[in-house]
Design brief:
The chain is elongated, with a radius of gyration of 32 Å. The chain is about 60% helix and about 0% strand. It has 23 helices and two strands. Strand 1 (about 60) and strand 2 (about 65) form a beta hairpin. The longest helix is centred in the last third of the chain and has 16 residues, at about 340-355.
Length: about 500
């Protein structure tokens, strides 16, 4: 069914709450019985649906296991492999469809609901799918109720209604369906279809997480990280990230890696952080790929391995991850790279800089402004370089601010402007840039771009000299010599204006 699956993984330090609309997966279904008169629950060993009619369920000749329709097919139109032993299940699409139609023609019951669900999953259009899910929901099947909620949430085959979505999620959640509990929690966390109630959301995530639903465990960890609906508790957050990680949920693995990297709720352990990052990276988690690549690039928690670093950084960079693009650009300049490979660094820095990464903007500006920078064969373009230096300077990068000041002072890539030069030299000096302090000291001494001020000149030159600036020391020595020279013609150091 179009649009029935939604996985939102957000790159970042800790991600965000993630909703999921998906078929039932192994080990994540209801396991408790219901009271008399309540909606029925059918406990299958894989998903919690009953397997007491093996002839109508899937049967694996390899391991002898029988499974409900959802688990046997994995939500696909054609059964492929046994969910337990992974042996191939030889059933054609035609036979499968014919069998489901026969079930619909028989007496109503558990298998009628399953057939409606499976035909809804494989329907060619959303309207037909929604009709099948409606039929399954009318038979009080939790997966039918859940999928009908998904249809209402996204307007698939029915008019979109968040209130109706919540109503059907609620019914399925009451039967213990973890996916429904998780999506109902999302509704309460966002106030979609119900008044916002973060505490209720946390309770529902916990119910789903306690059934082994990895996404819910991750979301509950997120809530403990940020104190949403629960008291902020990094140890509880790490506990639930671990629960999510142990189900194989990649965002949980990634955030558990972050916890170990930062010592948030666990003892810092870079080797353990790297292990979890790699596990998540192998499942395609972009943030984890960037973090794993960075660790192999720098040797944090692992031995430096530039080829492994390149594999993970390039994977994340190709998906648009700004930090990975910046680091992959740096990787291109390392080791015995060819000039062509080194020139590729500028391409990645530009992609990263376009997303606002000021380190990449600065590196790109240097590549555009310096001949054979880092051995790269890249055409010089000083006006373009000035643009990227300015972007990096706006982010507070003291080296970039100094570069902008120098460009204004020399007319390199921009029209010469001593007032702008002085302003940027002073800004860089205030950020701790030693050369900038020496230059602004000189400008105050000679009154270039600023009003001449002997005291300010001496202050900046003294700061620069104390940090090793030979230029500042020479200027101070010259000022001292003038101060003790015999009276004579006026001199810039004779007084302060």
């Amino acid at each position: 069914m179009a649009g029935s699956g939604e996985h939102v993984h957000v790159p970042g330090a800790v991600g965000r709450l993630v909703p999921m609309d998906c078929p039932m997966s192994a080990g994540q279904g209801p396991t408790h019985a219901t009271a008399a008169g309540a909606d029925p629950v059918y406990p299958c060993p894989i998903c919690a649906m009953r397997e007491d009619m093996a002839g109508e369920h899937g049967f694996c000749s390899a391991c002898g296991g029988s499974f409900c329709e959802e688990c046997r097919t994995g939500g696909n139109a054609v059964p492929t492999r046994c969910p337990r032993c992974k042996a191939e299940l030889q059933v054609s699409a035609e036979i499968e469809t014919a069998r489901l139609v026969r079930l619909l023609e028989g007496p109503e019951g558990r298998h009628t609901a399953v057939a409606h669900i499976q035909l809804g999953v494989t329907a060619a259009d959303d309207t037909t799918a929604a009709a099948h899910f409606q039929a399954a929901a009318a038979l009080r099947h939790p997966m039918g109720q859940y999928r009908l909620g998904v249809c209402y949430r996204h307007g698939l085959g029915v008019e979109a209604s968040q209130e109706e979505a919540v109503r059907w999620y609620e019914r399925a959640a009451q039967q213990g369906l973890a996916q429904a509990q998780s999506n109902l929690a999302i509704a309460y966390s966002s106030g979609s279809g119900v008044p916002q109630d973060l505490a209720r959301a946390a309770d529902l995530f916990r119910l789903a997480a306690d059934q082994g639903f990895g996404m819910a465990a991750f979301n509950l960890g997120f809530m403990f990280t940020h104190g949403d609906g629960v008291a902020a508790d990094p140890q509880e957050a790490a506990f639930w990230y671990r629960r999510a990680a142990n189900t194989g949920y990649p965002a949980g693995q990634r955030n558990l890696g972050l916890a170990y990297e930062r010592g948030a709720g666990v003892e810092p352990d870079l080797a353990e952080a790297a292990r979890w990052f790699v596990l998540a990276a192998e499942q395609g988690d972009t943030e984890a790929q960037a973090s794993a690549g960075a660790m192999y690039l720098t040797g944090d928690g692992v031995e430096v391995d530039l080829e492994v670093a390149a594999r993970w950084l390039h994977a994340a960079a190709e998906q648009g991850h700004s930090r990975a693009q910046a680091l992959y650009g740096a990787w291109c300049t390392m080791g015995n790279r060819t000039p062509v490979e080194k020139a590729e660094a500028a391409t990645w820095w530009e992609r990263s800089a376009e997303q606002g990464d000021h380190h990449s903007a600065f590196n790109l500006a240097r590549a555009l402004s310096q001949p054979a920078y880092g051995g790269m064969e890249f055409p010089l373009d000083k006006r373009e370089a000035f643009k990227w230096f300015t972007m990096a300077a706006a982010a507070g990068d003291d080296e970039a601010i100094y570069a902008v000041a120098h460009a204004y002072a020399t007319g390199d890539g921009v029209d010469m402007d001593t007032v702008e030069a002085a302003k940027h030299f002073e800004a860089a000096a205030e950020a701790g840039h030693v050369k900038a302090a020496a230059f602004i000291g000189c400008l105050y001494r000679h009154g270039e771009g600023v009003t001449r001020d002997h005291a300010e000149a001496e202050r900046w030159l003294s700061l620069a000299a104390a940090k090793g600036s030979e230029m500042a020391r020479e200027e101070l020595a010259e000022m001292e010599a003038v101060r003790h020279a015999p009276s004579g013609p006026s001199h810039p150091d004779a007084g302060t204006q």
